[in-house]
Amino acid sequence: MAAEPIIIEATIEAPIEKVWETWTKPEHITQWSFASEDWFTPKAENDLRPGGEFSTRMEAKDGSFGFDFGGIYDEVTEHKLISYTLGDGRKVKIEFEENGNETKIVETFDPEDQNPVEMQKGGWQAILNNYKKYTEGL
Fold first, then answer.
1. Distance between CA atoms of residues 23 and 19, nearest Å
2. What domain range includes position 110?
3. Are the beta carbons of 36 and 126 closer than 8 angstroms?
4. Closest alpha carbon to 34 in 107, 129, 117, 118
5. Residue 29: inside a domain, yes or no?
6. What is the pLDDT of residues 64-88, one digit of tens each?
7. What would the pLDDT profile of 1-52 be if each residue is shown by its tens digit?
8. Dihedral class, residue 126 (left if φ above 0, else alpha if ψ from -120 to 50, else beta)
9. Which residues form the Activator of Hsp90 ATPase homologue 1/2-like C-terminal domain (predicted)?
10. Using CA atoms, how far apart are residues 73 and 85, in angstroms rounded to an integer?
11. What is the C-alpha to C-alpha distance for residues 75 and 134, in angstroms, rounded to an integer?
12. Is residue 1 in a domain?
C-alpha cells in the first residue's frame, strides 16, 4: 500500500507574479533551495513546461555530501499549479493561491521510503520556509 502524501504550506507576503518568478527562475532557485545554512545550491536548471526537465544541485558547504534533485514536469499552469514526477517516480504537486499581496503555496508530495515521514516533512518545510524568507526579503 502506498504511503499517504505529505502536505506542507506557507503564505508568502508577496504578489503571485513575484512568487512565481522566484520559484521558477534558476537565478533565484540557487538562492533559496536548501534546508539549512550549512547547505547551498550551486546550480539549477529549469525547463518549465509539460515534458520539460529540471535539476537542482544541493551540496553541504563543507563538501561532505551533495545530491541532484530533479524530474520532469507533468503539468504547468502559470500562477496556479506545477506538478512533476521525480526521478524515482514519486509525484509532487505545488499549488499557488493568490490573495491580493499574499500568495499561499501548498506542496503535496509522495514520501520516499528511506527516511521517516516527519524528517521528510521537516526538510521540505525548511526549504519552503527558506523560500519564503528569500522572496519576502527581495
1. 6
2. 6-137
3. yes
4. 129
5. yes
6. 999 999 999 999 999 999 999 999 9
7. 468 999 999 999 999 999 999 999 999 999 999 999 999 999 999 999 999 9
8. alpha
9. 14-135
10. 6
11. 25
12. no
Cβ-contact 10, 112 below 8 angstroms: no
Domain count, the chain: 1
How would you classify the pairing of strands 91-99 and 102-109?
Answer: antiparallel
Burial of 74 (0-12, 13-18, 19+ CB in 10 A): middle
Q: What is the CATH number of the domain that holds 28?
A: 3.30.530.20
Residues in the chain: 138
Assigned domain for 18 exists: yes
Amino acid present at 105: I
Q: Tell whether 93 is covered by a domain.
A: yes
- Residue among 25, 16, 135 at smallest CA distance from 81: 16
pTM of the model: 0.95
Cβ count within 10 A of residue 100: 7
